[in-house]
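Contributing new records

If you add data, match the layout below exactly. Sequence lines come first and carry their own label; structure lines follow with theirs. Keep one chain per record. Anything else will be rejected by the validation script.
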Amino acid sequence: MNTILVIGATGQVGQKVCQKLAYRGYQVRALVRDLDKATEIQHSNVELFQANLEDDFSDAFDGVQKVVFVAGSGADTGFDKTVMIDLWAARRAVDYAEEEPSVEHFVLLSSYGAHDPEDMDGKIKPYIIAKHLADEYLMDSTVPHTILRPGPLTDEPAQNGFSNERPDSLAFEDMQISRADVAEALYFCVEQDCSKVKVIELFSGHASPYEAICLQ
């Protein structure tokens, strides 16, 4: 059975990804900074690996086949954390993956707008720039990858429907997608090789994960 490394395992999306993988039989190595925050992902198939993304976390990659990077600095942190986590930790994770022979797929959670940060304004722009640079670094690497760029995330229940086409309207309610649906899409990418070497914008819609990700 493959071991899946989830980086950012205690985040809102990371918890859902770990739960889906563990309950469906995968061995999960959950990288966490604070073990006290890992209660929601405790499972017989989950190995907790404590590390700080601002330090060396290369040991977490030993023997893993797939990597899911869902770590983020969070809305309440400063620009320094955006640089250190969303950009620099992501780049280092790509380096570690390239150095680990067992890694065969790297799934990166990015953001809508990362294709061209110049289109973004306001306080979110530094975050989008960090995502853009991390995405480019992964695309330039030798690691088979999938990059998901979802629209604004919500805490709504899963709709189990997806779209990879940008809505005509840029209104929040037209571009949004639930964290639960994003977690399902990430799980799909882990399972399906047809998701490899793709960069996909993702919104709520009516398509299946296969249609939205593999047929785009």
